[in-house]
Amino acid sequence: xxxxxxxxxxxxxxxxxxxxxxxxxxxxxxxxxxxxxxxxxxxxxxxxxxxxxxxxxxxxxxxxxxxxxxxxxxxxxxxxxxxxxxxxxxxxxxxxxxxxxxxxxxxxxxxxxxxxxxxxxxxxxxxxxxxxxxxxxxxxxxxxxxxxxxxxxxxxxxxxxxxxxxxxxxxxxxxxxxxxxxxxxxxxxxxxxxxxxxxxxxxxxxxxxxxxxxxxxxxxxxxxxxxxxxxxxxxxxxxxxxxxxxxxxxxxxxxxxxxxxxxxxxxxxxxxxxxxxxxxxxxxxxxxxxxxxxxxxxxxxxxxxxxxxxxxxxxxxxxxxxxxxxxxxxxxxxxxxxxxxxxxxxxxxxxxxxxxxxxxxxxxxxxxxxxxxxxxxxxxx
Length: 381
Description:
Elements: E1 2-5, E2 8-10, E3 25-33, H1 38-42, E4 59-66, E5 78-81, E6 84-85, E7 113-114, E8 131-134, E9 142-143, H2 150-155, H3 159-169, E10 177-181, H4 185-196, E11 201-206, H5 209-218, E12 222-225, H6 232-238, E13 245-250, H7 260-268, H8 277-285, E14 286-294, H9 307-313, E15 316-319, H10 324-337, E16 348-351, H11 355-363, E17 372-375, H12 377-380
Parallel strand pairs: 10-11, 10-13, 11-12, 13-14, 14-15, 16-17
Antiparallel strand pairs: 1-2, 3-4, 3-8, 3-17, 4-5, 5-9, 6-7
Helix pairs in contact: 3-4, 3-10, 6-8
């Protein structure tokens, strides 16, 4: 896959990746997804997304070659590769903050390295390809258990841990009312995982009918189209005895609909780090003393948010990229026990060669597409 500019991706031939460091591995991709956050790149919303880049931070594959310093993997291992590129030894990795690795993206002051996510995240080529170079191969790549379906495994690279961490950061207590803004794959997973932490009521807000219906069945949860509500904040207050939700999760991020002003400033003119509509709604609809958990992606520049409300309501805001490596052992147990069924979210399996069509379908929300998986040629033979 080759990025050619906003709304333009195509299949192209690039040199196969090579071992550049003793801790590298070369992986032949068997599954790779298009993520909702890839659409921020596709739509031109992320700074320093360069022509010629290969997207894709959700992938599984077979180890084809390893560097001299790799000890935990061997050629032939089928691995799931977390989207975080983490060294495992810096001060932040040692705290379990693998999404903030200081070594994989040393020019940044915030996020660590991410596969296929612009030069603001290190400039690494991603997994929407036949082969990919995997740095720090002894740290995050995890051998897929024999019993696990590869379709489950590929969703453990981002969607499941990000949704799970969104619920985890909410500090959900038994009986809490949890509101999730966004019924994309991460929002749906966050809603489902909210029950694991003891939620008593889960509400999802979005504006796409088929996604809301999927959320009702998969999460399961209450789901509402914000276009049918006079004001989502007023609605949430009204259905929670005028108090507000105990926990609100923003699983939308930079391309939220619902506010003309935010859309113009954040999506059209790119004067701020995206449209912060869902973040506004989150801050204003959570109760006093409540928690707002943010897993939606925003750009690195300033974003207009009601900070006075955060202060005056005594809110706690928790946000980060998911630390996949930290969460994987628990999530693998949940998949094995049947508590989580990631592959049920996959609605489209598309040949890698048709990546342009796949992006168009997913971006335009066509054909009831919830989660598309790209299949490289070798995985289909």
